[in-house]
Amino acid sequence: MKKNKEANTEIGFNEVNEKLDRVIDTMATKDDIADIRAEMATRRELQALDGKFSSKFQEVIAAVDGLMKPISELKMEYAGMTMQLGRHEERLSKLENKQ
After folding, report:
1. Average pLDDT over residues 65-85
2. How many CB atoms lie within 10 A of CB 11?
3. For residue 81, is it within any domain?
């Protein structure tokens, strides 16, 4: 019999055998590992996917940049119109004060 130092109890052969049976029941077999490997992507496949994602990402960035330029131009146009409206308001105010 083996003594368990933590619990200070004796562990019999049957208990060790039961624990090993539980480990063996849940342990992967060579066939399990072969099945998993067959389903896994290879390094070459992952590199190909990376290339596809990289090119798609670049396309998305270019599309967003294409959308941002007109938005930026509209913001500048709006700022210019706001300044013009401010000047017109000043002129109107001066004209009203003269009358």
Report:
1. 87
2. 13
3. yes
Residues 2 and 34 in one domain: yes
By the 8 A CB rule, do 21 and 27 touch? no
Instruction: Indicate if the pLDDT at residue 5 is higher than 70.
Output: no
Q: Is residue 48 part of a domain?
A: no
Nearest to 85 by CA among 51, 77, 44, 4: 77
The answer to whether residues 37 and 28 touch, using CB atoms and an 8 Å cutoff, is no
- Answer whether residue 47 is part of any domain: no
pLDDT in tens, 57-74: 999 999 998 888 888 888
> What is the chain's length?
99
Phi/psi of residue 9, each to 5°?
-125, 160
Token pair 């055998």 is found at: 17
E-assigned strands of the chain? 2-4, 9-11
Asked if residue 45 has pLDDT above 60, the reply is yes
